[in-house]
Amino acid sequence: TDTKLYSLSVIIPTYNESDRLFEAIKSLSKQTYPKKLVEILVVDDGSTELIDQKALIRHATPFKLSLFRNKYNQGRACSRNTGLRNASGEIIIFLDSDMTVLPDFFSSHVQTHKTKTNCVAIGNIVWADEIPNNPFTRYSSNRGVHRTNVSDEVPFKCFVTGNSSVPRTLIDSTGLFDEDFKTYGGEDLELGVRLHLRGARFFYVSEALSYHHHSR
């Protein structure tokens, strides 16, 4: 097994949900991964509420956090690209700002990249306890990677950017998100298609767990 420890860039787009964002950052601050190897990049997509940057940096301690702001709301593709243009890590982790994670979240993603080359790791998103059980939440809990019971290779169409990781070299050879996608969804699948055409393989990592605190 590869014993290397990769440097990580965690990219989190956010829009008008500072309370959930702070909870997400607090959960990242508890990670067991070496603090010198991690940078967190939060991209505020033109929120109308002001994010307290000093408090955000404080909550991220011991990890380094940078906050970027779009002048106006431009969508998640553009926001993630802002993060990518400023990221220096060898592995890019995409996480949504309405999610919290367990302390081994970074390590679980990295472990997959240690054992598999040219790989995209897709984490395990589950509804948080406070989200009501209804037909939509039950439906979304049984699609995509959740149709498979094992941590194994899955089709590229399962790629979601709410909780996933990609080697920087693979992003560089594939290109950034398509910023023509302005509304919710679509931009991750389109990048997934291009990653697939580049020869990337997609793996479901059930241990890389995130709790989703917002139902759209």
Give a description of the structure.
The chain is an alpha/beta fold. It contains seven helices and nine strands; from the N terminus they run βαβαβαββαβαββααβ. The protein has helices spanning 18-29, 53-60, 76-86, 105-115, 135-140, 168-174, 187-197; strands at residues 8-14, 38-44, 64-69, 91-95, 99-101, 119-127, 153-154, 163-167, 201-212. Strands 1, 2, 3, 4, 5, 6, 7, 8 and 9 form a nine-stranded mixed β-sheet that branches. The N and C termini lie far apart (40 Å).
What's the structural blueprint in terms of helices and strands?
Blueprint: E1 8-14, H1 18-29, E2 38-44, H2 53-60, E3 64-69, H3 76-86, E4 91-95, E5 99-101, H4 105-115, E6 119-127, H5 135-140, E7 153-154, E8 163-167, H6 168-174, H7 187-197, E9 201-212
Parallel strand pairs: 1-2, 1-4, 2-3, 6-9
Antiparallel strand pairs: 4-8, 5-9, 6-8, 7-9
